Amino acid sequence: MQHAVGGPLPPPHQPGQGPAAGWSPAGPQPGHPGPVPPPPSVPGFTGPPPGHLAPHPHVPQHAPLPPKPDTTGHVQLPPGGPVAMPSAPPVVGQADPTSTTLAVLLIGPAGAGKTSVAKYWADHRRVPTAHISLDDVREWVRSGFADPQSGWNDHSEAQYRLARRTCGFAARNFLANGISCILDDAVFPDRPVVGLGGWKRHVGPGLLPVVLLPGLEIVLERNAERSGNRRLTDEEVARIHGRMAGWYGSGLPIIDNSQLDVPTTARVLDDVLARSIASPPQW
Hints:
Oligomer: single chain
CATH architecture of the domain at 97-278: 3-Layer(aba) Sandwich
Mean pLDDT: 77
Helix content: 25-40%
CATH class of the domain at 97-278: Alpha Beta
CATH topology of the domain at 97-278: Rossmann fold
Shape: globular
Number of strands: 5
Strand order of the largest sheet: 2-3-1-4-5
């Protein structure tokens, strides 16, 4: 309970006693303690024992209470750093990608099913896993969004680069705190500095790239089911798919999911990752 400014808190009241000696009900003015009134006459009270000092009105009579602990909590998070290459298991074939902390990059053209597979794979792992979608992060930009459908230019390229760097920063922070990540992006094999090279710089050498590449007819059908700025023209889909064919012969694992549903593709992805953990691809 707060008292008047400049007035000290009263000492505790003792049974059988009046107000403690030295306490002025009105409270002294700051800098002027004022006279100490004598204790009132109380039957049976003979006065303070010899050597007893009346409390000074400006001296606290109680030790301060210890501060309350921070009940809201504060967790110190490890800083994110480059992801190291995953260690190979003692015996090849024993790697379990479903219970290992991994950083995966799922590559594919528009309509390959990257987002659907990445979400399903992340949802069904036995360890905490985050799905980081490049398109989602890129579309955080609302005012001034550079839509590549209206023409590819330096502005849209800069926003893609910024989104990739943001995704890489997020992935490193998740991984540093024990949460696996799967990122999806349409990375072209004929742009190694911007594509795989950029992801390697942003995340680290331990990133495991996997290519999802169904047939052209499949990606055209899936693209037709899209809406908004993620739906591309058939000509653009065919052009992107043709550029993605350059991944054949690159040494990266490729999954043709033309005839596979999402759960089956996710299981195939686990098999591919188990081999990548045992023998990381050179890229």
